[in-house]
Structures are given as structure tokens and as C-alpha cells.
């Protein structure tokens, strides 16, 4: 995996900003864009992977991976094996909400199984960064093919973390905004359906009031009685009456 061009151009900055726009892509699509941009924007980054996690509602619950993406198939395999084991640097980042990094995987002793997976695929250094924005938690892992590749160069280690944090923050914001948008949209649709249903029922009540010579309360009581005895939803019954189809 040769290192990609690592210059934060105006175009890259624009694309990073677009990550936070609602409706730009799905969760997996956003994760793929985050990994792609990381390879292009972060000096020394030869590949990247990202994972979206559930945020537990109870302290007794553990975060669960919901979606993942990687810039290369071999990195996807590294992540999949780590998630299957249930431990490793990504899990530590999720549990502590703090970034971790290894300047030389060959000397890494904290996660021997993950280190072996990385070395077999030519990875010599990595850093993993978390970002939580309710209800979304995203981790972004950057990989280098040379020792200290992610902590050297013109931007320095602090610059790498700034870029990585910016990418993962924008990615998690996009997914959080999308979830909130979907929830608001779903609520609006439900309210609209409720308003339309109420209007149909009111029209049916008016028809019954005219036909039976009764008041609104009596007409509604009759609608409810017929609905219950015929096992038909009140709205469906009202629609039949308004549509001049009778009372079934």
C-alpha cells in the first residue's frame, strides 16, 4: 500500500466539511469517505479504517460495532479480526474514549494478536482516534507502512491528530445529523398522518350527523361502535363513509 498524496488542499477541506451535510450519503458511505479523505489528507497515512459503534444506554452494556469501512481489503480484514476477538486497540479506544497510537508495531506488546495481523500486511505504525456525538460513536484508525510515519513529517504528531480528529468528528456529525433528521422527518410524517386522519373522521362525523340527525358526540360514538363491531379501523371506516361507500 504506497502512501497516498498527503496535502490538505482547499478541495480536501471542502470535502471534509461536506461530511457533516445531512443526506450526503449513508452511514457506510460516510465511513468510506472518511477513510478515503484520511489517506489523502494525513501525511504518512497509507490506509485507514473507521467503525461506527452503538453508544450504550446503561453502564452495564458494551458498545457494539454497527458499521465499518476501510480503504483497503487487507485493512478491512485486520478490523474484522479485531472486532471478532472483542479486544484490541480499537476496543480500548472505544472503552476509554481516548486515542491510542503505536510508532512501531514491531515493538508493540499491548495487543500481540492485532500487531501480528498488521505486520503480516506490512503495517508498521497506526493511530486510532474516537469521537462521540450522541447518538453516534466513531473510531478512525490511520495506518503507516514505515515506523513513525504518522508522527513525523511537516505537520508533526499534533497536526496528524488534528486532521484525524477533524475527519472523525465530521463523519460522526454527519451520521448523528442524519439520524436526527430521520427522527424529525418520521415524527413530522406521523403528525401529518394524524392530522389527515382527524380530518377524514371529522368529515365522516358530519355526514353521520346529517344522515342520523344527531350531534357530533353521538356521531363519533356511532363511528366507534361500528368500528369495534365490524373490526375495522376508525380511519378506514371514515374513509369509506366519505368516499360514499357506505358503512361496509
Automatic annotation (TrEMBL):
<feature type="domain" description="ANTAR">
    <location>
        <begin position="181"/>
        <end position="242"/>
    </location>
</feature>
<keyword id="KW-0805">Transcription regulation</keyword>
<keyword id="KW-0804">Transcription</keyword>
<protein>
    <submittedName>
        <fullName>GAF and ANTAR domain-containing protein</fullName>
    </submittedName>
</protein>
<dbReference type="Pfam" id="PF03861">
    <property type="entry name" value="ANTAR"/>
</dbReference>
<dbReference type="InterPro" id="IPR029016">
    <property type="entry name" value="GAF-like_dom_sf"/>
</dbReference>
<dbReference type="InterPro" id="IPR036388">
    <property type="entry name" value="WH-like_DNA-bd_sf"/>
</dbReference>
<dbReference type="InterPro" id="IPR012074">
    <property type="entry name" value="GAF_ANTAR"/>
</dbReference>
<dbReference type="InterPro" id="IPR005561">
    <property type="entry name" value="ANTAR"/>
</dbReference>
<dbReference type="InterPro" id="IPR011006">
    <property type="entry name" value="CheY-like_superfamily"/>
</dbReference>
Amino acid at each position: 500500500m504506497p502512501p497516498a498524496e498527503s496535502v490538505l488542499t482547499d478541495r480536501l477541506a471542502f470535502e471534509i466539511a461536506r461530511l457533516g451535510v445531512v443526506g450526503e450519503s449513508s452511514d457506510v458511505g460516510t465511513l468510506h469517505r472518511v477513510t478515503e479523505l484520511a489517506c489523502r489528507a494525513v501525511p504518512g497515512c497509507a490506509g485507514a479504517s473507521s467503525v461506527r459503534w452503538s453508544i450504550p444506554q446503561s453502564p452495564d452494556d458494551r458498545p457494539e460495532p454497527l458499521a465499518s469501512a476501510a480503504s483497503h481489503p487487507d485493512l478491512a480484514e485486520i478490523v474484522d479480526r479485531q472486532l471478532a476477538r472483542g479486544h484490541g486497540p480499537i476496543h480500548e479506544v472505544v472503552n476509554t474514549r481516548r486515542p491510542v497510537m503505536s510508532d512501531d508495531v514491531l515493538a508493540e506488546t499491548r495487543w500481540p494478536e492485532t500487531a501480528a495481523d498488521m505486520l503480516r500486511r506490512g503495517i508498521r505504525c497506526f493511530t486510532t482516534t474516537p469521537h462521540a456525538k450522541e447518538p453516534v460513536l466513531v473510531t478512525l484508525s490511520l495506518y503507516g507502512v514505515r515506523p513513525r510515519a504518522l508522527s513525523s513529517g511537516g505537520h508533526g504528531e499534533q497536526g496528524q491528530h488534528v486532521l484525524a480528529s477533524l475527519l472523525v468528528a465530521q463523519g460522526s456529525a454527519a451520521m448523528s445529523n442524519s439520524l436526527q433528521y430521520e427522527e424529525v422527518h418520521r415524527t413530522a410524517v406521523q403528525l401529518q398522518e394524524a392530522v389527515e386522519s382527524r380530518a377524514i373522521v371529522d368529515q365522516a362525523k358530519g355526514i353521520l350527523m346529517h344522515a342520523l340527525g344527531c350531534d357530533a358526540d353521538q356521531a363519533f360514538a356511532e363511528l366507534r361502535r361500528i368500528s369495534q363491531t365490524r373490526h375495522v379501523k376508525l380511519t378506514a371506516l371514515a374513509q369509506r363513509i366519505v368516499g360514499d361507500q357506505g358503512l361496509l
